[in-house]
């Protein structure tokens, strides 16, 4: 008989995560600890449990200003090499404990230089933390491989600089590039020089598109910028009729197998979806788009990969075959080499789900 599908059993399943923000997944205890160490006295709550509730309530408030305020506090405690390394190490350990075997974690180096760190020092600290986290997890019998994605802020003018930074570290742990931030008013085409540079360097990149803004954002990200993946991409559903007929853009995205980095709980919080049960992921899975499941900001959403998969299983009646499908989609869409992807699919993911279905 198959293993009953619940949060406890899902946690044991091998999972792959492509869209997770480092500053959105800090442990509340760590925020409090580092704030005390560096003399940061602007936290809205004095202890970890109360602070965790504040982060979640703010993210659920429906106020974009309040939601963005949460990141001001996490970024504030990520301004030293020790702080960055600790946050990165704990992120790797937490994901490994949640059954994630491969993760791509993104962060914006330009946001972590306020205390005098150079961009290189920021990257070195984060990559060192990831490696320490992988090792600590391995010592507990947990396997995880972490790839870093360097993010540039779309409202700023440093995307080419961050793209060059990412390429410089391509053999040291950075596997891709991203732009993030407000979509409306800051189209991805503002950063064409960065994307053209990345393509010349044969380097992978993803673009936040189709979350807060609609189809034009997705179209620009694909046809002008040449993105490999779409960060969220929820609004592609706007190009699909109620009867399931695909418009030209949706057809192209599906035909080209362009991965959609969907983050169900986060999408509900930001208003990109009404609820988990009404999330476009259900329709897009039926229509065989290259859909992946992700966490986005684990702290703000109070979530994990286990929780996201459990919510989807409950909402759409998914079984182990469906969860394996999402996981293999993500592994196929990752930014590491083909051989390593294949090894994880055939050596870890398929055997892991086979055992749960047996």
From TrEMBL:
Q: Where is this site: Important for catalytic activity?
A: 232
The UniProt record gives the binding positions of Zn(2+) as: 19, 21, 208, 296
For this protein, what does the record note about how its cofactor is bound?
Answer: Binds 1 zinc ion per subunit.
What cofactor requirement does the entry state?
Zn(2+)
Name the domain of life: Bacteria
Top EC class per UniProt?
hydrolase
Listed binding positions for substrate are 21, 23, 181
| Active-site residue numbers | 211 (proton donor)
Keywords from the UniProt entry? Hydrolase, Metal-binding, Nucleotide metabolism, Zinc
Task: Supply the EC number(s).
Answer: 3.5.4.4
Which residue range or ranges hold the Adenosine deaminase domain? 14-350
Its annotated function is as follows: Catalyzes the hydrolytic deamination of adenosine and 2-deoxyadenosine.
The text of the family note is: Belongs to the metallo-dependent hydrolases superfamily. Adenosine and AMP deaminases family. Adenosine deaminase subfamily.
Protein name in UniProt = Adenosine deaminase
Organism (species): Jatrophihabitans cynanchi
